[in-house]
Amino acid sequence: MESWSSRVRADPTALVGRPASALLELLDEVDEAAARRPSPLLVDVPSDRPLQVIGDSHGDWPAVSAALGFARRGPVPDRFLGLGDYIGRATWSEPDPATLPNGSVWNAAYLLAWNAVAPDEVILLRGNHEASRQIPVPAPTLLRELRRAYLRTEALALYDRLMGALERLPLAARTEGGVFCAHGGIPPRALYDASRWRADDLALLEGLLWSDPELDYRDRHVGHPYSSAELKEFLAAVGCRVMIKGHAPGHSGRAIFEGRLLTIHTSDLFADFGEGGVLMAEIPRRTRVERAEEIALRVWAGGSWQPRPVRASANGAASASALSSLSDAPLPEASPGR
Description:
The protein has one domain: 4-Layer Sandwich (Purple Acid Phosphatase, chain A, domain 2), CATH 3.60.21.10. It has nine helices and 15 strands. It has a seven-stranded mixed sheet. Strands 4-3-2-12-13-14 form a six-stranded mixed sheet. It has a two-stranded parallel ribbon with strand order 7-8. Strand 5 and strand 6 form a beta hairpin. Helix 1 packs across helix 4. The longest helix has 17 residues. The C terminus is likely disordered.
């Protein structure tokens, strides 16, 4: 009989309506793959092929599956990298979206199934939502979504298993061509040397998963704002020139900090931010990437990935009113689950 991991790779919704045992079987395969090959904290990615990068997806599995399908379209697939925040669908303004019910569960299962079978091809980094049991992420919604999809007596055990798998993901990646990838920002200066990184270092987690460029910084009471000069210094320390991140959506799809920093998101939750929310970035196959404008940007529109140039953004902060609707502030209580 075909494994659940195989079924989910073919169809992100294969687990919908299935018993908890199906998700547990998939997670068993994920755990076995991780035991055979533990992930490093910093992944070094060859530049012999293009690398397709997605940002925060927050349960938007249609966008994610379209992006992964694009990356794997040829006889020699492009590599694929996720910047984290695969879970946590709800927002302050829309605590229980009518679209994509339980999207976090299927999105995470789909990506983990691919990463388990092709870890060199489908690389998944952690976001702050994948670290919600380690650093303070208000009102994570994954458990609520699991309770909508499964019996309440099963949901907590499934939550523990799924979060355990997500917490093993790497913190960052760098390409041979000099592009650094992380969910949010850069670590404190004392940790610019990646050889000193430790999995239990909360300062490292806060820096990489929670920090924002100073143009988009809001007081989240965790992480820290970083400047263009700090980013340049850090990138030099890790042998890179450009960074791609997700997290703060204010400049999504736009290059800031003299072309050194590009932010992308891959979810319809961010449709009104920057250059639009369902974006994918292609790091080209080349020996060196010097500026974010050398990265190909695509937007999901009309059922296909349409090219869009990376534009430099004026160095003005995104409006606080626009950002507030997607803040990581506490959410209202959920409506009764299905």
